[in-house]
Design a protein that fits this description.
Helices cover about 30% and strands about 20% of the residues. It is of the alpha/beta class and about 325 residues long. The strands form 3 sheets. It has an 8-stranded mixed sheet. A hairpin with a 7-residue loop joins β5 and β6. α2 packs antiparallel against α10 and α9 runs parallel beside α10. The chain is globular, with a radius of gyration of 18 Å.
Length: about 325
Amino acid sequence: MDALLDALGDEVADAAEETFLLYSRVAGQSCESSGNLGFIDPTADELEIHVAGKDLTIRQFPKLLVSNRAEGTTGAVLWKITPPFADWLAARDENALFRYGILGPESTVVELGAGVTGVILLAVAPSVGRYIATDQQYVLQHLGRNIEANVHWFRSHTRQGSRRARPSTKEHVKSPSDTIDWNVQKLDWETDSIVGIPQAKDTSVLLAVDCIYNEALIEPFIRTCADICRFRTEKESSPTVCVIAQQLRSEDVFEAFMESFVRTFRVWRLPESSLSPELRNNAQFVIHMGVLRKIGDSFVADNIYLNSMLEALSST
């Protein structure tokens, strides 16, 4: 872990400065309008994409995107940063998380706000021990179907020690393939506790891709990240690494996110030299990495957010 953090360079110390630096970079590069927020094609029912060397057929749900669901709808379509991020993360020989042993055959990955597409799971799950994709209830069935529609992708990635699929439930969708350990579970940042996902107790890497767009969800999102990281760090010597990728849009929302993230986590922005050309050539794409802050033997998060694990356990 220390070698990885040394390779990342200086920590992000100030949210306002980080915001200024990134949005100055965007202003200096000709970037497309963010009028559609960064969707690839918000009207298409189906997309054909090439990710991590494989051709995937992904079903979208544009009608959900324009519905009036109070729970949110942005997970119904594919975001532009997702394919290049998935390509970068799946490149084991080039990605620092694999090079420094953070990701590998024994690792557990948890994704927050996975959406309906399953693209990152499809790219990364064959290379790790377990992959758990989470989102709100309305997403789960569509997400499971997209993964199953591309399950042939798994069959060319046989790995020793993989676990057999378990039966699906309403809130838990599991692969029919016994070569890759993946599952899909309900996790609403505002209402759910990670106690309901016991497999997340040993999370190596926590992922979130283009989840930062609503200022009201920032604190629930960061609290959920902190809970998952506390879940592992209380039991393991190596902390969970939190990786957050996003396309820059609202400067105010981004700065509010960074203030919360830096307060609770030690944060680094991944240097351009560590990214793929597709990621580093777009000034609107940025990836940050965080490790939960500690003062002595205590987590800073303990003084900010009630530990939802303890809250859930005490209510049972």
